[in-house]
Amino acid sequence: MIMAKLMMNWQIGRFVQAQDAADTVSSDIRGFLGQPGIHTLRPTFTLEKIAGMMAAGSDRLSIISRVDHPLTTPLPEIEDQNVSRDSPITESRYNLIILADSTEAVATVKEPTGWTAITLRIGFLDGQMDKLTQFLSVFDIVIADRGMNLPMRIIEEIVATKKVNR
């Protein structure tokens, strides 16, 4: 009984901590998570990851795209030269955004380790709604279509935050 109460108090405290971090993310990104076609099981904790990436800045960010489809819209160019695309993760670039269109593709990426490393996995279903449950077990955010608005907005926010803090 005491252990259950301790666990409940820890979970409540952990959720409040995540909510405080999530509140620092811009309202338009928070709004994206509520739109039709965008799915997440734990929006507060997903927003906490985004907030952590914003706090670390673009010079700590790597982006790996494992979207392999002939109709794929390529990842638009990012103006900030500090953002590393499709390159190995290093000690200084410990935050990672993975864009993928299959759960198997995520398994091919060696994710950073360590308590400061943050990995945000964004999956694209491309209309295969029968795979939604499987995708939600692997990805933080699942986008039902090929829209790049949310991933690009997250990256733009990370880059903009670092420029303000410099």
Write the layout of secondary structure elements.
Elements: H1 2-22, H2 27-32, E1 38-39, H3 43-56, E2 61-66, E3 84-85, E4 95-100, H4 103-107, E5 119-124, H5 132-136, E6 141-143, H6 149-165
Parallel strand pairs: 2-3, 2-4, 4-5, 5-6
Antiparallel strand pairs: 1-6
Helix pairs in contact: 1-3, 3-6
Q: Return the domain count.
A: 1
In the CATH hierarchy, the architecture is 3-Layer(aba) Sandwich
General shape: globular
**CATH topology description:** Rossmann fold
Beta strand count: 6
CATH class category? Alpha Beta
- The arrangement of helices and strands along the chain is HHEHEEEHEHEH
* Structure class: alpha/beta
Which percent bin holds the helix content?
Answer: 40-55%
Strand content: 15-25%
Largest sheet: 6 strands, mixed
Number of helical regions: 6
The average pLDDT is 76
**From the alpha-carbon coordinates, what is the Rg to the nearest angstrom?**
16 Å
Question: In which order are the strands of the major sheet placed?
Answer: 1-6-5-4-2-3
Terminal residue distance = 49 Å
Characterization of this structure:
InterPro entries: HAD_sf. This protein is an alpha/beta fold and 166 residues long. The chain has a single domain (2-165), classed as HAD superfamily/HAD-like (Rossmann fold, 3-Layer(aba) Sandwich). The chain has six helices and six strands; from the N terminus they run ααβαβββαβαβα. It has helices at 2-22, 27-32, 43-56, 103-107, 132-136, 149-165; strands at residues 38-39, 61-66, 84-85, 95-100, 119-124, 141-143. The chain has a six-stranded mixed beta sheet. Strand 5, helix 5 (132-136) and strand 6 (141-143) form a beta-alpha-beta unit. Helix 1 (2-22) crosses helix 3 and helix 3 crosses helix 6 (149-165). The longest helix is centred in the N-terminal third of the chain and has 21 residues, at 2-22. It is globular. Mean pLDDT is 76; it is low at 69-77.
